[in-house]
Amino acid sequence: MRVLVVEDFEVLARSIGTGLRREGMAVDVVLDGSAACDRLAATRYDVVILDRDLPGVHGDEICRRLAHDRCQTRVLMLTASGTIEDRVHGLGLGADDYLPKPFAFAELVARVRALARRATPPVPPTLAYGDITLDPARRAAFRAGRRLDLSPREFALLECLLATPGLVLSAEELLERVWDENADPFSSAVKHTMHRLRAKLGDPPVIETIREGGYRIGPS
């Protein structure tokens, strides 16, 4: 899942970003509305966590633009005001959900995951191929009943492949979906992480490398 955090209070913005990365999400963080518009023009996000009172372009205007463009990105609006009028106004602008500050981080994570499910085609609650099963909600993966000790990146790669059985995902697509703005697009991060994932999955191999194409689980 790719998430954009737009919050002008830097300490809070960085804290949200760090916490969501620990949950296995790819997260970019910006501190003003103008930077948010630049990111949204260049990258497809599943969810935007959007503060309302932003410098540059106001959060309301960003939300209005996203709704006007009818993009698949879901908006979780944050505000210091929790009045009913503010919530109604934010939802009326096109926000998909609304969370007043202060908030419990566990609730933020739950709301982001719920919105991400609405931003992408529906997938089963448990993903499986052969003797491999993956439970996104529990952050658990198994092969032949044995729990796999996967890093957040390895887990996210496996989840992407299992969610699109038979489809070839290029290294560029995987880099965009699993890594964040700090990833070097010219690095071998996908290749090296895929190597570790294959080693942990063991035999027989299930991830196929498609020459000059990418990676695939399942028949075409």
Strand content: 15-25%
End-to-end C-alpha gap: 24 Å
- Strand-pairing-aware structural class: alpha/beta
Q: Which value, in Å, is the CA radius of gyration?
A: 18 Å
Measured as a percent range, the helix fraction is 40-55%
Find the CATH superfamily of the largest domain: Response regulator
Total domain modules: 2
Keywords: DNA-binding
Protein name: Response regulator
InterPro entries: CheY-like_superfamily, OmpR/PhoB-type_DNA-bd, Sig_transdc_resp-reg_receiver, WalR-like, WH-like_DNA-bd_sf
GO cellular component, one term: cytosol
Quick overview:
The chain has helices spanning 10-22, 33-42, 59-69, 84-93, 105-119, 152-163, 171-178, 189-201; strands at residues 2-6, 26-30, 47-51, 74-79, 97-100, 127-129, 132-135, 140-143, 146-147, 207-210, 214-217. By secondary structure, it is of the alpha/beta class. Helix 1 links the parallel strand 1 (2-6) and strand 2.
Structural topology:
Blueprint (H helix, E strand, L loop, with lengths): L1 E5 L3 H13 L3 E5 L2 H10 L4 E5 L7 H11 L4 E6 L4 H10 L3 E4 L4 H15 L7 E3 L2 E4 L4 E4 L2 E2 L4 H12 L7 H8 L10 H13 L5 E4 L3 E4 L3
Parallel strand pairs: 1-2, 1-3, 3-4, 4-5
Antiparallel strand pairs: 6-7, 7-8, 8-9, 10-11
Helix pairs in contact: 6-8
